[in-house]
């Protein structure tokens, strides 16, 4: 069920691609290279959660939702910082292979593999930090007695914790993380927009001149 929910949420990235402006829309290969890193990271985090679950005490639903929300907030923040650090190092030390979203021209599989390994390392590091946080005695003491107080029905609690919240939060996280991972060259976006706007204005002006010229020709023909 969790895998199916993740797949359904992941399909939002297909819609996101079609929401991108035509001049900046990624080819399908680049889109796959970008989004597959998220899939790999999600598998790593899910495997870590399965491994951690027997070591947690208290209400399983509470532990699950707290763990999930930590992954979606603090974990995402750690991964974002790691991506930005990798992009900074790629520019400073001229290591294009670790510049997330950039794969060369033509796109190189080696760059994608390198970035997948780096992203997997970031996801593992983030999950390790969160696992240590969850093992702190004060955190264990609080969460072992915590309950989802607004929800009293066990079946409704299970649906909220396992289905509703993960589905919508996963859509948001996939969308936001994709913005981190896609390549955004500095200054290029504004230049492209300016160029597209200029070409549109030029085309409109050219169309107006053609219409004026046609009108003049019709007048001359009528006078003759």
UniProtKB/TrEMBL annotation:
Here the segments flagged for biased composition (Basic and acidic residues) are 215-224
Q: Which residues cross the membrane?
A: 62-83, 116-136, 156-176
Q: Where is this region: Disordered?
A: 202-224
Where does it sit, as one GO cellular component term?
membrane
Query: Does the record's keyword annotation contain Signal?
Result: yes
Where does the signal peptide begin and end?
1-19
Query: Which controlled-vocabulary keywords does the entry list?
Result: Membrane, Signal, Transmembrane, Transmembrane helix
Q: What is this protein called?
A: Transmembrane protein 110
Q: What is the lineage of its organism?
A: Eukaryota, Metazoa, Ecdysozoa, Arthropoda, Hexapoda
